[in-house]
Amino acid sequence: MSTVSLAAPTPPVTPVSGVEKALLTLVGLGLLLLLPVAFDADAERARLCFFVALGLLSAGTLGWAAFTFGRKPAGVRQDNLWLRGSTGRGSLAWLTAVVLTGFYVVLYWFSADDGQGNFGPLNQLVHALDPLSQALRRHPADQWFLYGTFYTLAVLVMGGRALWKYRPSPYQQIRTVSVMFFQLGFAFLLPGLMLALQRPEYYFSYFWPLKQDYLFPGTVSYLLKDGGPGLGVFMVFWGAVMSFLATPVLTYFFGKRWYCSWVCGCGGLAETAGDPYRHLSDKSREAWRWEVRLIYPILGLIVLITALLWLGAAGALPGWFTTPQQSGVPLLGGLSPVDGLGKVYGFFIGSIFAGVIGVGFYPLMGSRVWCRFGCPMAAYLGLLQKHFSRFRITTNGGQCISCGNCSNICEMGIDVKQYAQRGEPIIRAACVGCGLCSTVCPRGVLNLENGPREGRYQGSQLITAESLRILS
After folding, report:
1. For residue 276, what is the DSSP state?
2. How many helices (H) and strands (E) does the chain have?
3. Which residues of 455-468 are buried (b: 16+ CB within 10 A; e: fewer)?
4. In terms of Cα–Cα distance, which of 150, 124, 134, 163 is closest to 58?
5. Running DSSP on this structure, what letter comes out for residue 167?
6. 3-state SS string over 83-149?
7. Cis ω on the peptide bond leading into residue 209 (within 30° of 0)?
C-alpha cells in the first residue's frame, strides 16, 4: 500500500538559461587562461593571455549579473542558495575553497623574491603586471602588487554584481560604491603613487589595530625618516588620530558600519566577492561563544605588543627583553621576546587567520570569518558600538512574520529574527551595519538608526511572553 508524504516538497533549482551558460563560460575560460600564463616562457604571450583572462572574467561576471538581476522585478532574492553546489557547501564550494586557500599559501610562503626577480610559482603572473606596475608605481611588479591587483579587481567586478543585485536599495548602492572607491583609490592607486614619488607605500584606509605595525616605534621612525618632514609627520599624525580620536567619534555617531561596511578593504571584499556566501555564517550560540573567545584576546594581544614595543623604545623594559641576540634568549631564531611576540602575531593572525582562513574559507564558513572571529579593529569598534554608540537596529515586532530572511542573510552570525520577534533593538558588537537584514525584510520591520542613547535597549511594549510562546 502506497503512502502519501505530507512533507513540504523541495523547491526546484531554477534552470540556467542559455545566455547565463554562455556568460559563465566566459568566466570559466578566463580562469583557464590564467593557467598557461603561469607556465608560458614567452613573456609577451603570457602578458597577453593574462589581460585577456582578466577581461573575460570581468565581462562574464558583469554580463551574468546584468542578465540575472537586471531582468527581474525589484527586490532581493536569495533563491536556491542552499541547493546549489557552489553556495551550499557542495563540491564546487569545496573546490573553490581549496583554490583560494592554495593561492594564499603560495602567495605568503612560496613567492618571495629570490633577489633576481623570480617569484616562484607566481613568477609569470607577477611579471605580466610589470607594465602596469611601472606606469603606476615606477617599480617592477612583485607578489604583493599581483595580490593587490587581483584584490581590487575582485572588489570592483563583484561590486558591479552587487550594484545590480541590490539596485532597489539606495543605501546598498551607495555603500557598495563607497567600498569600491576606497579600495581602488586609497588601497591601490594612492599607495602606488606614493611609491612613484619615492615615499613609503602607506595605506590611508587602514590603521591600528588592523594595520598593527603603523603605530609600532620602528614603523613610526621609518615613516618620519623616509616620508620627509612634511608627509612623514602627516602619515604618523593620520594614523594616530584615526585610531584614537576619529574612530571613537565616528563610532559614537554611526556605529562600526562607517568603517567595516563603508571603508575597510577586508569588509569591501566580504561585501562584494563574498556576497554569494553570506548566508553560510553560523548562527548558533556556540559560534558566538567562539567569536568572543577569539576576537577579544586577539585585540588584547596587539594592544600588549604595541605597549611593550613603546615601553622598550622608551627604555622602560630590561635590555634582555627588547634586544635580540645579545640577551641569550633564543626566541624564534634569536629575536627578543617582544619582537618574537610580534612575529608570532604576524604569522598566525596577520597571515594564516586574515588571509588563508579569512578569505579561503568564504565558500564554507561565510564571507566575514576574519571580521567576525579575528579582526582586532572589529573587536575595538564592536566594544565602542555596544557600550558607547548611538547606533542600533530597531525592530517592530508586531509586524514580524518570522520568515527568517533577515537571519539567513546576516553575514555576522546574528539570529536577527529572534530580536525582531521580540521587538528588541539589535545592539550587538558583531553587527557591521550592512543593513541587508532591513533590505530583505518584506514587512519593513527593521530600521538602522542613530538615535539618542536614552532608552537604547528598550524593546517593544506590544510583545508579551505569551505571544513569543505561540511563535515558538
Report:
1. G
2. 24, 2
3. eeeeebeebeeeee
4. 150
5. T
6. CCCCCCCCHHHHHHHHHHHHHHHHHHHCCCCCCCCCCHHHHHHHHCCHHHHHHHHCCCCCHHHHHHH
7. yes
Single-letter residue type at 170: P
User: What one-character-per-residue DSSP string does 391-433 give?
Assistant: -EEEE-GGG-----HHHHH-TT---HHHHHHHT--B--TT---
Cα gap 164→161, rounded to integer Å: 5
Task: Extract the C-alpha cell encoding 225.
Answer: 625618516
CB-based contact 415:463 (threshold 8 Å): no
pLDDT in tens, 22-33: 999 999 999 999
Give the cell for residue 83: 541547493
Residue of 72, 155, 156, 143 lying closest to 111 (CA atoms): 143
Position 40 confidence tier, pLDDT thresholds 50, 70, 90: confident
Compute the distance between CA of residue 327 and CA of residue 148 in angstroms, rounded to an integer.
39
Closest CA to 327 of 347, 305, 312: 312
Which candidate, 384, 394, 390, places its Cα nearest to that of 437?
A: 394
Which whole number is the average pLDDT over 88-107?
95
Distance (Å, rounded) from C-alpha 100 to C-alpha 229?
Answer: 42
CA distance 16 to 365: 26
Q: What percent of the chain has pLDDT over 70?
A: 91
- pLDDT tens digits along 156-179: 999 999 999 999 899 999 999 999
Radius of gyration of the CA atoms of the chain, in A: 24
Q: What is the pLDDT of residues 352-364, one digit of tens each?
A: 999 999 999 999 9
Environment class of residue 23 by beta-carbon count within 10 Å: exposed (0-12), middle (13-18) or buried (19+)?
A: buried
Name the packing angle between helices 18-39 and 43-70 (round to 10°). Answer: 160
Q: Of 393, 395, 447, 443, give the one whose Cα is nearest residue 423.
A: 395
Record the cell numbers describing residue 408, joined without a space. Answer: 539567513
pLDDT beyond 60 at 396: yes
Residue 449 parent element (H or E)? strand 446-449
| Identity of residue 462 | L
Cα distances from 225 to residues 68, 200, 206, in angstroms, run 52, 10, 20
- Helix pair angle (217-226, 285-313), 10° resolution: 60
Whether residue 244 contacts residue 304, with contact meaning beta carbons closer than 8 Å, is answered with no
C-alpha cell of residue 318: 630590561
